[in-house]
Specification:
It contains ten helices and 15 strands. It is an alpha/beta fold. The strands form two sheets. Strands 1, 2, 3, 4, 5, 6, 7, 8, 9, 10 and 11 form an eleven-stranded mixed beta sheet that branches. The protein has a four-stranded parallel beta sheet with strand order 12-15-13-14. It starts with a helix and ends with a helix. About 3% of the residues have low confidence. It binds threonylcarbamoyladenylate (TXA) and magnesium ion.
Length: 306
Amino acid sequence: MADAAANLVVGNLVAFPTETVYGLGADACNAAAVARIYSVKSRPADHPLIVHVESMDAIGDWASDVPEYAISLARDFWPGPMTLIVKRSGLAADFVTGGQDTVGIRVPAHPVALGLLEAFTRVGGKGVAAPSANRFGNVSPTTAQAVSDELSDNLSDSDQILDGGACDVGVESTIIDCTADAPRILRPGAITEEMIEHSTGIHPLNTEGLAIRVSGSLESHYSPIATVVLDQPPIAGQGFIAMADVESAVGVVRLAAPTTHEEFARVLYSALRAGDEQGLNTVVVVQPAGNGIAIAIRDRLIRASN
Ligand code: TXA
Ligand code: MG
């Protein structure tokens, strides 16, 4: 951890596991290091990055105005799979926020991520800017091997990939805009509408079904090489992802058969990657029904299929 933190200090990149997906980290105060994130990912420069911090105490460093309901969310769900968008402080430079007057902040719940952030804080670091560690538009990586497959061609010898095993949650954090009177979900995730309402006492504004407001978000994203088709009967030679109680016909390549929605989220991206590794042209997915994390799964599937 000390070595990885020192590596961040000198401006190198460190990919690290979180409970959601792997992130590609840089010192959030180092313009040149952050610029390398964009070039390694081939990401457009106006897409803001999430700043990862060691504890909610650091919110005061990065934010200038934090509503009471956001404090409540931070207390209840950090460390955890939730990003809060708040008005930025002077520390949050344009090169991190994509020029917006807000900043995204998250305390991840993974021992390796927290160990790295603690070590980085000890040597004077303020926060680690990190997008998902995939090339722009691709499926987020949920293992260190997937990070390496995505990015190793573009990383330098001094950059690092920390291996913390497979991610527990498997889909990206819930992003909540905390700049208005009520919280608004910009990207659904494991922290659900019900949980937000329970924590804050305010019914969150939800954007499911509308164009997601996350700045720069595109309709087509989270896409594997294979064409993703939703809710159709698969035919022989096609990949297939559905809950375990949905049977697959002879010749269909079953990529995942989760028994719970949590497991569906956890295995989804690795199953899509496995389809690509097997050279499948098409992967059929039966969308999980209902609320909770199923909303986040459907959000990613609709984008993957666009
Ligand atoms: O689970 C996660 O959130 C992972 C792990 C590594 O923490 N990170 C992640 O980062 O998914 P990324 O960059 O792949 O997706 C973050 C999204 C982007 O669509 C970005 O536009 C949005 O968050 N975002 C970041 N800061 C924002 C801001 N100030 N205002 C609006 N959207 C913001
Ligand atoms: Mg991403």
